[in-house]
Design brief:
Distance between the termini: 88 Å
Number of helices: 24
Structural class: mainly alpha
Shape: globular
Radius of gyration: 27 Å
Largest sheet: 5 strands, mixed
Number of strands: 7
């Protein structure tokens, strides 16, 4: 403080002379205007975040973990059919309903326009979505605070400090993140329509436009991720409760306008999504709401703190804590909204432990990995208040050259912090979730060129969770890359016929055990018309040596630690 004060005092006699040449981009405090500065800074943050996200996946042959495989498979089917397929056959045996339809459609369009193969397109598309989380957090922050610099700091925290959403890449959780991108525009549009009406504004064009765009946003959110719809509903409830508590004289006005706007937009969204709405209601929403209770569930049992504390997560939480205390005094309405939102999220994610119906619809993990949003908002607001207090305490606004020096120092500190944050985020992907290697991609290309797409491959597997089995190496990418089938198939098979699920699980138990007898494996393959075995570079339970020594398989491919075997016909 004193060093900077001394610097400002020394410059003061020369300020008028030198300040004539100062760019107007940095002459005012950004929270009081100056859109050019804000726009350039936001673009810089998002661009930096995108490069960090791309660097994170620079060595990946395919997107990580299990979810990525069935997202890629569905996208492949969309591209093959030129529209949404009537079923997921031959890869999975159940009728299509709304399983992240909006995300898959967007990925299919990007893949088509880019000309890339699906794994490569998905890596770029997913990381672009990850970087755009900064824009989403910026919008939500400025919607609540009306302070652009607070939005910039929030975007910065999301991009370079918090482990989420960067860690989403480890799971291929691109669908939930896409939904979180839609949530802030939805809130902003509904607020615009509601506040225009409530305040008696006669700009009908703005009101109508806000309602139409809000309807489209609700539709898009429904098609992308049903769970984030619940997040949005809880946030809207918090906003509504805050409004009526703080302005009780407008209670009936708020109720009337919320009812009108809410019903109109919801009905419009149902109409736009009608081909998917009712199947989704019957196949996803109602089963989730009526799911059985677990006798072993404990309160916050799946709330994992390390998802919040790795990288510079602890520092971000500390900033958020300071920001929350500051908000309590400066913007109590914002504190109330975010507090009510988080209370609802934490309550509904613990219904199982509380022995209440509806458990499983919102999980503790799904909540903890989106808490980067309120953390960034509180932290961004605190940094804005801290910066502005220095700016005005030092009387920076009176000296043009001092403004340059002030923002240079702020920018330098932010840039240095971003560099350290990027170093923490680059290795954040969990190596256990990386199933494929480049050698697997080469083998998959060979399959595509040399083996019929009607074929089925046995692959290494493991018990993934939810009573299902998933592939444990690059062979799991056979379906989306080559068009052939793998056993086990993409994990969405768990949504199919229970009898078929049981059959696949029996096969999965064989390929997930290192003690599987080659004769037993061959008999299983012959019974289920499976001709090939894919053993990926990562390795797994199935032993190449044991299978070859059995004399029951012929080796048809061997490159860089990847083997493809064919069942030897019965004599």
């Amino acid at each position: 403080y004193y060093i900077f004060r001394f610097f400002v005092t020394r410059l003061k006699p020369h300020a008028e002379e030198i300040g004539i040449q100062v760019s107007p981009l940095i002459t005012d405090y950004p929270s009081r205007g100056n859109r050019s500065f804000i726009g350039l800074a936001l673009v810089g943050i998002i661009t930096g975040a995108f490069f960090v996200r791309l660097a994170m996946v620079r060595d990946l042959a395919t997107p990580a973990w299990v979810d990525s495989v069935h997202h890629a498979t569905i996208t492949s089917l969309i591209m093959q059919n030129g529209n949404f397929p009537a079923s997921y056959a031959p890869y999975m045996d159940f009728d299509v309903y709304n399983y992240h339809t909006g995300f898959h459609a967007g990925l299919a369009v990007f893949t088509w326009l880019s000309g890339l193969e699906i794994p490569d397109a998905m890596l770029i598309y997913g990381q672009a979505i990850n970087a755009l989380a900064a824009l989403s957090v910026y919008l939500l922050t400025t919607t609540f605070t009306r302070q652009p610099l607070a939005g910039l700091f929030s975007a910065f925290i999301t991009s370079f400090l918090t482990p989420m959403p960067a860690y989403y890449t480890s799971w291929g959780r691109y669908t939930q993140l896409t939904g979180l991108l839609i949530l802030p525009p939805l809130l902003a549009l509904l607020r615009s329509a509601l506040h225009q009406d409530t305040n008696g504004t006669q700009n009908r064009r703005v009101i109508s436009s806000s309602r139409i765009l809000a309807t489209i946003a609700i539709s898009g959110l429904f098609l992308v991720h049903y769970r984030v719809i619940a997040f949005a509903v809880f946030l809207l409830i918090a906003d509504f409760v805050e409004s009526i508590l703080m302005e009780r004289d407008k209670l009936f006005t708020y109720l009337r306008h919320w009812a009108i706007v809410g019903v109109a937009c919801s009905l419009g969204a149902i109409l736009l999504t009608s081909p998917w709405f009712f199947p989704t209601l019957s196949h996803i929403f109602l089963p989730k709401l009526s799911s059985p209770e677990s006798v072993q569930a404990i309160l916050f049992g799946d709330f994992t703190w390390r998802f919040l504390t790795t990288a510079y997560g602890k520092q971000a939480i500390a900033l958020a804590g300071l920001g929350f205390l500051w908000v309590l005094f400066k913007k109590p309405r914002l504190a109330l909204i975010l507090l009510l939102w988080m209370i609802q999220l934490l309550f509904f994610s613990n219904l199982d432990a509380l022995k209440l119906p509806g458990a499983g619809f919102i999980t503790g993990t799904s909540v903890v990995i989106m808490l980067f949003i309120p953390i960034s908002i509180f932290g961004g607001y605190f940094l804005d208040e801290l910066t502005s207090s220095w700016y005005f305490t030092l009387h920076i606004g009176q000296i043009s050259l001092a403004r340059i020096a002030f923002w240079f120092i702020v920018t330098f500190i932010i840039g240095l912090t971003a560099a350290f944050g990027a170093r923490q985020l680059l290795p954040i992907i969990n190596p256990i979730t990386i199933l494929s290697r480049q050698a697997d991609r080469t083998a998959l290309d060979w399959i595509h060129q040399n083996i019929s797409s009607d074929s089925t491959f046995t692959i290494n597997s493991f018990s993934w969770g939810f009573g299902l089995f998933a592939g444990s190496d690059g062979g799991y990418w056979i379906s989306p890359v080559t068009g052939a089938r793998s056993m086990p198939p993409p994990a969405l098979y768990g949504l199919g016929n229970p009898n078929i699920v049981e059959e696949i699980n029996l096969l999965g138990q064989l390929t997930a055990s290192s003690e599987t007898n080659p004769n037993e494996l061959r008999d299983m393959m012959m019974t289920n018309n499976i001709d090939y075995v894919f053993l990926g570079r990562r390795g797994g339970p199935l032993s190449h040596t044991a299978l070859m020594q059995s004399g029951l398989f012929d080796q048809i491919y061997n490159e860089n630690g990847v083997w493809i075997l064919k069942v030897r016909p019965t004599p």
